[in-house]
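User: Structure with NAP, C-alpha cells only please.
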Amino acid sequence: MVNTIRGDTKVLGVIGNPIEHSFSPQIHNTICKCLKLPYTYVPFHVMEENLQDAIKGLCALSVQGFNVTIPHKNSIMQYLNGVSEEARLIGAVNTVKNVAGKLYGYNTDGNGFIRSLKKYNVDVKGKNILILGAGGAARAVAVKMAIEQAKCITILNRTVDKAKEICEVINTHIVDIANSDVFSSENVSRYGQRVDIIVHTTPIGMYPNIEANPVEQLAFLKEDIVVCDLIYNPPKTVLLKETEKSGCLSINGWGMLIYQAVNAFEIWTGEKVSNDVIYQLYKLL
Ligand code: NAP
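Assistant:
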C-alpha cells in the first residue's frame, strides 16, 4: 500500500501513545497512492515524556506535517509557533504543518464531522442539536457546530461540569446557544424530542463492549431525527441499529475519521482530495 520511497519522498506521520491501532497510516497512504503524490505517512510511537524531543526531531528531519493523537493533543500546543482559532477554541490540536521549520497547529476533527454529515446532505445550520458526552471529541464537534450556525446545542454528560465548560467556551467566544445537563435516560428523552440531530460521543458500545447501549429508552425518537455515533468499530453500534429501526438516518464515525484526515492532508499538501479518492477511503473500513 505504501508508495515507493525515493530520494524526493516527503514524510508525513502521526504521533501518539499507543499508536499501533491507528487507521491514519492506511487512510493517508491510500490518498498518496490514489493521487500519485511523492509522500509517505508513518506512525511514530511517542511517550509523553519525549514529546518535546520528538517534535524537535520531526522538525530536524523536515517532516512536512503530522497528526497528533492521544495523549498529546493538548500538551503539544505549548511547542507550536501558531495555533488556528478553531483549535484554540477546541483546546486541542490534531494536525501540525511544518512551514520551513515553524510549526502550525490545526484541529480537523470538527470539520471532519461536518463534512461527513454533508455527504448525507445534512446541514447543521439552524438545527437543534443534542450531544451525549463531553470529552475531547464532543468538544471538537460542539465548537464546530456552533461555528456552523447551529440554532441550539444541548450537551449531556455524566460529569456535568465538563459539559458546562464546553458550553461556556461556545457561549462566550462563538455564540450564546449552548446549555448543559446530566446524561440520564430521562434527559435524553426530554431533550431528544425537541432536536434535529443527536450526536453520541462516549465510548459506550465501542469494541469490545459492542452490546452496550448508551440510550436504552428510544421511544421518543421521530424518524426525521438524524442520529450520529462517533464510534466506527463496530461500524453499526447497538445505538445505530436501534435508531435505524425507528426510521432515522443513522451515521457512524468512519466518515468523520476519513474527512478529518482528508482535511489534514489538504492542509499539508495544498492538494484537493477528490470524491473518487474519498469513495476508496470509505471502502477501507
Ligand atoms: P474522552 O475525551 O475520554 O471522553 C469520553 C466521554 O465519554 C466523556 O464525556 C465521558 O464522561 C463519557 N463516558 C465514558 N464512559 C462513560 C460511561 N460509562 N457512561 C457515561 N459517560 C461515559 O474520549 P473522546 O476522545 O472524546 O472519544 C469519545 C469517543 O469518540 C470514542 O468512542 C472515540 O473512539 C470516538 N471518537 C471518534 C472519532 C472519529 O473520528 N470518528 C474521533 C474522536 C473520537 P465523563 O466526562 O463523565 O468521564
